[in-house]
Amino acid sequence: MEKALKRYSPIFVLPTFAAFIIGFIIPFIEGLYLSFCQFTTVSNFKWIGISNYINALKDTSFTDSFKFTVAFAIVSILSINVLGFGLALLLTKGLKGTNIFRTVFFMPNLIGGIVLGYIWQILINCVLSIVGQPLLALNTKAGYWGLIILMCWQQIGYMMIIYIAGLQNVSEDLIEAAKIDGATLKQILWKIKIPMVMPSITICVFLTLTNSFKLFDQNLALTGGDPNHTTEMFALNIYQTFYARAGMQWKGLGQAKAVIFCILVVVISMIQLRATRSKEVQQ
Amino acid sequence: MEKRKNIADKIWIVVLAIAALAYVYPIVMILMNSLKEETSISTGTAFKLPTADTFAGLANYVDAITSKGFLQSLGFSLFITITSVAAILLCCSMCAWYITRVQTVFTKGLYFMFVLSQVVPFQTVMFTLSQTADSLNLNTPWNIWVVYLGFGSGLAVFMFTGFMKSVPLEIEEAAMIDGCNPLQTYFKVVLPILKPTMVSVGILEAMWVWNDYLLPTLVLDIKKYKTIPMLIQYFRGSYGKVEMGPMMASIMLTVIPIIIVYLAGQKHIIKGVAAGAVKG
User: Fold this and answer.
1) Looking at domain A59-277, does it have CATH number 3.40.50.150?
2) Which residues in chain B have Cβ-Cβ distances shorter than 8 Å to A21?
3) How many whole angstroms separate alpha carbon A83 and alpha carbon A76?
4) Is B114 at the interface with chain A, CB within 8 A?
5) Which of A46, A222, A234, B261 is the most exposed place for a label (fewest CB within 10 A)?
6) Where in the sequence is the domain holding B92, given as residue range(s)?
7) What is the CATH number of the domain that holds B105?
8) Whole-prediction pTM value?
9) Same domain, B192 and B240
10) What are the residues facing A47 on neighbouring strands?
11) How many CB atoms lie within 10 A of CB B5?
12) ipTM of the complex
């Protein structure tokens, strides 16, 4: 069978492979190379070694955006997962209206980041003006919490669905047995349910982690980095470096930042996968 | 004991109902404001319902459709999403089948690259990707699906191979022995088995392409072609002053079809997302 299939490889593999080369491999390799160059287009470049990387690390707007992204990621990962898991627990108890609640909580997920950003910008600005605070464009603190509320609103439902799928796989017998042995509800939660849904936790933490680090659309639409770049996250900072100003030095600097960003995301998600995978139990 | 549990359940239902209302509220608020007159929309009064004085009927919607190019953007978004998702489903499932059934250094290396491409942030390739697309003339709504197939193949191939590994080889071999060539085997045997995974992958990729903002912004010529997310973003900077009325109408026009599609297919969508995540 393998032999017959191999003869057909142009039909089966070539279309995806060709598109993958155009859409990922060429841009990725070119991007790595250009991060060591000064350039304005891909055909007009000059090798300058690692000075882009040095400039990127010296750029305080970049390091500030890193701190902001980390501060955002920690709070949003925690709140999305705790609330998503809590909802999943409630919605697997067999309450009335479970289906309606599930439908409603999942819905914001389907709406795109740009649209969500503007919806929440209007809402949050209205709240701020009623309580007499400066609007989002001048208010870093509100921008930070606004982004967190927005992310929770969008992602809790998604994580809830994954946790529900995980909880439904926990066998009733196990919980029955624990009850007969006199386990309290709290013990059942911590000693049975949570260890048994560890694979779901791995997935959800991984998704929220990468989503938080890569967040762009919501950031652009809700705050646009205002005031004065203080709510600018990693991805937006890179975008601004590339496209906000004209000049020889910016694109190389942006590309170097983007490579650093890529390495960070890959390393952090590897560490996270290792850490939570090791806590999974064999079923 | 039983009674106390009942009361606790009722309290939880009330709490959940309040949370659900709060969840829907932002969208209701936009709907209310999209029905107000342009001059009555201000940051301080966004929570107020439209009154007889401020009610503008569907004027904002008419404006969004007739003079802001909403229908055109809707058309572009629909076309791009349908072509891209169709291409991804067909090409990536074929590629995934090949990768699982033919184990060589090439297929293993390719699989690794697909997995890697999922983690790499778009910003790392955004500039070079848009230049590559330009130089190959892949910068119109008619052929941008090639770019989406390339950048979206990571997730799709990954999910298809994850499922394919659990499909027994015997059925396919039987088909081959009965005289099917690989293409016939694929379309008659493998494709039907893959259907549930197709639904999952299709939903996830459609959500991504439909809502994607940065890729089409960088690849397409914004003066000629605007997808819906591009149109909404365009309201902010490009008309001098932000026209809140038509902007909110456009947001509603974007959200309403999504909600309708969602309510119609919510069982598949929720199941698809759950299945997709568990394999991913």
Assistant:
1) no
2) 150
3) 10
4) yes
5) A46
6) 70-279
7) 1.10.3720.10
8) 0.87
9) yes
10) A37
11) 10
12) 0.85
